[in-house]
Amino acid sequence: MAGWMAHDAGHDQIARQHFRCSLDLARMGGDPHLAAHIYASMSHLSLHQDEPGKAISLARQGHAELADTPPAPALSARLYAMEARGLAALADGTACADALKHAEKALERCADDKPSPWVSPFDAGSLASEAARCMRQLGDLAEAERQARQIIKLRADSHTRSRAFARLLLVTVLIAQGRSDEACFQARETLNLIEGLSSHLVTQQLDELRALLQPHRANSTVAEFLPCLEQALRDRRGLYSWLSSDATGAG
User: Fold this and answer.
1) Distance from C-alpha of 90 to C-alpha of 56, rounded to nearest angstrom
2) Looking at domain 2-179, which CATH architecture does it have?
3) How far apart are CA 144 and CA 174, in angstroms?
4) What is the pLDDT of residues 33-63, one digit of tens each?
5) For residue 243, how many other CB atoms are within 10 A of its CB?
6) What is the domain partition of the chain in residue ranges?
7) Read out DSSP for 204-217?
8) Most exposed among 90, 196, 210, 219, judged by the fewest C-beta atoms under 10 Å?
């Protein structure tokens, strides 16, 4: 959890240290499911650090941890999804599709035993999220849009964070498709959704969204929306600045 909190705050090197420490502790505690889960987390982190080869290797190491354990379908699916993300980043569409199929089949299986209580859930919505990112990376925008909308549908009544990331992903896909007006509508909905959601990663993606929209300023809808986006970014940066200075003072 400390590793994920550090990652969400934008401190990936600290996150890596926490993940490595937790992996050692999981092995000392004899919990292979947790060890595999941590490998998946480390794989995710490597993807964010533009290390797809390392992400694939870590996901496969996670599979190795599960070799002699009771089946853990959701955990296996997560590892396959991380492997697929790495393969997509390497532009290997065929291998990526195979890994996503393995993930889907894993989710269809029932586990005989419950996994470690320390392992986070991974379901159809989680897989749709990873598949959408794979498809966007590979340039299959229609499938990326379908998967992103599927996440929003599956998370309609919960998981505010997941819906926020799904909407942000959908917005980038719509921009890539030349649908700027619709992208701005979805982006406005997203700003309302994340108003109380504190996350460096969300702020980072909003910044990337602004950069994607800048070339379309001639579009009146985009021109009208950009000041709202910029104000949201100023507000969020102001909050992080206040939190940072407050934490320094408290220390």
Assistant:
1) 10
2) Alpha Horseshoe (1.25)
3) 10
4) 999 999 999 999 999 999 999 999 999 999 9
5) 12
6) 2-179
7) HHHHHHHHHHGGGT
8) 196
> Comparing C-alpha atoms, which of 239, 230, 188 is closest to residue 211?
230
The pTM of this model reads 0.88
Arithmetic mean of pLDDT, 67-96: 95
The pLDDT of residue 249: 45
DSSP state letters, 102-140: HHHHHHHSPPSS---TTSPP--HHHHHHHHHHHHHHHT-
Question: In which residue are the tokens 């102001």 written?
Answer: 238
User: How many whole angstroms separate alpha carbon 240 and alpha carbon 87?
Assistant: 34
**For residue 20, what are the contacts with CB-CB under 8 A and spacing of at least 6?**
42
Distance of alpha carbon 132 from alpha carbon 154, whole angstroms = 14
| Span 73-97, average pLDDT | 97
